Amino acid sequence: MKNPFFKYVILSILSILIAEIFKKAIHYDNSLYNSLCEQLTSLQIKNLTGFQKRWQWIEYMFIPAILLIKTILIAAILYIGLTFSDRELKFNRLWDAVIKAEFIFLLVPVFKIIWFYFFQTSYTLKDIQNFYPLSALSIIEYTELQRWSIYPFQILNLFELTYIIYLGYQVGQLTNTHTGKGLKIVGYSYVHVLLLWVVTIMFFTKNYS
Question: What distance separates the 2 farthest-apart alpha carbons in the chain?
Fold first, then answer.
């Protein structure tokens, strides 16, 4: 499959399917109801969940849209990073590499399904939202952290590390150099922007939550 758009379509379909399986496996509707029952009446919850189900199709559009924006932005960041080296690549090939790397993150909801289905069978909506497998947060109790500090602990995970290494490998292959050179390009571009993104999220969470 040399066409990156076809891979993007496959990625989007798999993301939607896994998201639906995740909701069913962890009984998301029940967790949502239990979370809301402390704040809303039964009628309000019924109206809210009914509204959510009627407009569920928007979620099916939202996931592909987010994936498209994310992969194009990361490809653009890598493309800019290449301008500071002596290598040139077509944007389409970088986008293809980013989409292939994005498949790594499909494992995150799979791991979450396994965790909540077999191990932590008693959980709340907050547990689901804050749990990130194979991350620094998984070895720290999130209730002991300030809300603004949860996100960086989620980002420090093996999936993100694998993603960065795989991107470095792909860039090394595409530039006919080696993985080390590719990792430098990814480090100078994507990793720096990722750190800026994390700091931005922390800032807004701390000041506007």
Answer: 63
As a whole number of Å, the CA-based R_g of the chain is 19
Contacts of 186 (CB under 8 A, 6+ apart): 78, 81, 164, 167, 168, 171
Residues 26 and 124: beta-carbon distance below 8 Å: no
Q: Write down the pLDDT at residue 89.
A: 82
CB 170 within 8 A of CB 97: yes
Residue 46 has a pLDDT of: 66
Summarised one tens digit per residue, pLDDT across range 179-200 is 899 999 999 999 999 999 999 9
CB 100 within 8 A of CB 41: no
Cα 160 from Cα 144, distance rounded (Å): 24
Tokens, residue 118: 């077999």
What is the residue-averaged pLDDT of the chain? 88
pTM of the model: 0.90
Rounded Cα distance between 40 and 67, Å, is 33
What tens digit of pLDDT does each residue of 90-118 get?
899 999 999 999 999 999 999 999 999 89
Question: Contact 78/190 with Cβ under 8 angstroms?
Answer: yes
Which residues, including other chains, have CB under 8 Å from residue 49's CB and lie 6 or more apart?
29, 32, 33
Residue type, 190: Y
